[in-house]
Design brief:
Layout (H helix, E strand, L loop, with lengths): L11 H6 L2 H4 L4 E4 L5 H11 L6 E4 L11 H4 L5 E3 L5 H16 L2 H6 L1
Parallel strand pairs: 1-2, 2-3
Length: about 110
C-alpha cells in the first residue's frame, strides 16, 4: 500500500528543508494563501508533474494559483473555500445593520 503523508509548511524555505523523500510523499496540496504558493507548486510540478492529484485553497481567492504556468496548464483539480463563511458573514452584516439602525452603542454606554 502506497501510504501518503501530510506535510504542513509555513513558507518556501521550510518546504525546501524537507527531505526529497518527504517532498515526494504527498499527492494533495492545501494552501492557506502562502505568498510562496506558486513557488512550491512550480517546484513540485517541475520535478514530478504527476505527483499532485488535487489542490485546495482554504480561502475563496484562487488568483495566486494562476501565477503558476505549470499548474494552470495541468489537469489537476482546484477547489476552494468559496462558500465556507457565507452564512456567518451574512449574519454579521444583519447584526451590524441592526446595531447602527437602533443606536445600540447608546445601550453599551449606559
Amino acid at each position: 500500500m502506497n501510504e501518503k503523508k501530510i506535510r504542513i509548511v509555513r513558507d518556501f524555505g521550510e518546504f525546501l528543508a524537507l527531505s526529497e523523500e518527504d517532498k515526494a510523499s504527498f499527492d494533495t496540496f492545501v494552501s492557506y494563501r502562502l505568498p510562496e504558493t506558486t513557488q512550491i507548486l512550480d517546484y513540485i510540478l517541475e520535478r514530478n508533474p504527476n505527483q499532485l492529484k488535487w489542490v485546495h485553497s482554504c480561502i475563496a481567492g484562487v488568483e495566486i494559483f494562476l501565477n503558476s504556468k505549470a499548474f494552470k496548464e495541468s489537469p489537476i483539480p482546484l477547489t476552494n473555500a468559496r462558500t465556507a463563511f457565507s452564512k456567518i458573514l451574512g449574519e454579521f452584516v444583519i447584526m451590524a445593520m441592526i446595531y447602527f439602525t437602533k443606536n445600540m452603542q447608546i445601550f453599551q454606554e449606559q
